[in-house]
Amino acid sequence: AQRVTQPEKLLSVFKGAPVELKCNYSYSGSPELFWYVQYSRQRLQLLLRHISRESIKGFTADLNKGETSFHLKKPFAQEEDSAMYYCALSPPSNTGKLIFGQGTTLQVKP
Amino acid sequence: KAGVTQTPRYLIKTRGQQVTLSCSPISGHRSVSWYQQTPGQGLQFLFEYFSETQRNKGNFPGRFSGRQFSNSRSEMNVSTLELGDSALYLCASSSRTGNYNEQFFGPGTRLTVL
Question: How close does chain A come to B69, measured CA to CA in Å?
Fold first, then answer.
């Protein structure tokens, strides 16, 4: 079964604290993994993808194929990071299909 | 470049009616995907169109259909509306070049079925 699991509906941290948003996936094969973010009153947008291995807004995510995880991390949370975060996978061969997790709301308190 | 646009932004319909939603992709993008977002089920893939052909379909009943025009604009149709069809419908466009699959999302159409 193709599935993405984000175990936390809400993650609340204080400004300056480290953040880890968990994502586990179930897929037989080598999918592409993404993190999408939705800030308040804005549209869903790509934050980062595993193939680029880049850091965006201080966030990084490492694909662990053994544990089938793609956790999103940031060492020091900022208030502007407060948003809804979705982990998603795309089957290989570029099908135009994204399978999303249920999302985690990150709340960064001052 | 202008972003993905969706019309209308809000719709109220009654059970049994049908509805058509429209999506205009980013210029040059030939792939349009549709998603349904509900509090209970989250974001679920409906279907994808590429060059006027449906390339992939999610697990939704046949009441949900779509099409894509030669200018890549896409429409989604839901017939015989049910209360459970109340949702935010998102479309996303992608250039589909190579193996890169970044999708750019529109603001969504909020459908309420009474």
Answer: 17
DSSP characters for B34-85?
Answer: EEEEETTTEEEEEEEEETTEEEEE-S--TTEEEEE-TTS-EEEEE-S--GGG
Segment B65-107, tens digit of pLDDT = 999 999 999 999 999 999 999 999 999 999 866 656 689 999 9
Q: What is the DSSP string of A20-44?
A: EE--EEE-SS--EEEEEEE-TTS--
- Whether residue A31 is preceded by a cis peptide bond, meaning omega within 30 degrees of 0, is no
Q: What is the mean pLDDT of chain B?
A: 93
Token pair, residue A23, equals: 């994502």
pLDDT (0 to 100) of residue A2: 85
Distance CA B87, CA B61 (A): 15
CB-based contact (8 Å) between B66 and chain A?
Answer: no
Q: Which two tokens stand for residue A9?
A: 């509906």
Across the interface, which of A43, A92, A97 has its CB nearest the CB of B106?
Answer: A43
The tokens describing A74, both together, are: 């940031």
Question: Does B31 lie at the interface with A, CB-CB under 8 angstroms?
Answer: yes
Tokens for A66? 């053994």
B33/A98 CB distance under 8 A: yes
Nearest CA in chain A to B96: A94
- Using CA atoms, how far residue A84 sits from A4, B40, B75, B100, in Å, is 15, 15, 27, 24
List the single residue in A44, A45, A94 with the smallest CB-CB distance to B101: A94
Contacts of B59 in chain A (CB under 8 A): none
